[in-house]
Amino acid sequence: MYDILNRLMDTPSGSGAEEKIALFLQKEIGKYFDETYFDNAKNLVFHKKGKGENIMFCTSLDTDSVVATSVEDGSANVYITGNISAQTCSQRLITFEGGAKGLLICKADANKGASETFVELLSNQPDIAVGEKGFFDADFASLGDDIYAGFGLCAKLCILSMILSAKNIANTDKNVYFVFTVQSKLGFRSSMQAANTVKPDKAYVIGASEGQFGKILIRVLDKSFTASKVLVDKVQEVAKKCSVEYCLVAKPEQISQCSKIASANDSCLVCQIDLPAKYCDTVRECARLCDAENMANIIEQLILAD
Amino acid sequence: MVTKNILSKEENALNKPFDFELLEKLCLAGAVSGFEDNVLEIIVEKIKDFCDELYRDKLGNLICFKKGQNRREKPFMVCAHMDEVGFCISGINDDGTLIFSQVGMNADVLPSRRVRVGKNNLAGVISARPAHLISDASKGISIDDLCIDIGCYDKQEAANLDLIGQQAYFDSDFCFFGSDFIKSKALDDRVGCAIMCSLIKEDLLYDTYFVFTVGEELGGVGASCATNQVKPYACLILEGTTASDTPYNKGGQRVCVVGNGPVCPFMDGGTLYDKEMYTGIQNLAKDNGIDCQTKTKIAGGTDASKIQSCLSGVKVAAISLACRYIHTGASVASTLDAQKMIKLARLTVNTQW
Question: Taking CB atoms and an 8 Å limit, are A193 and B252 in contact across chains?
Answer without folding.
Answer: no
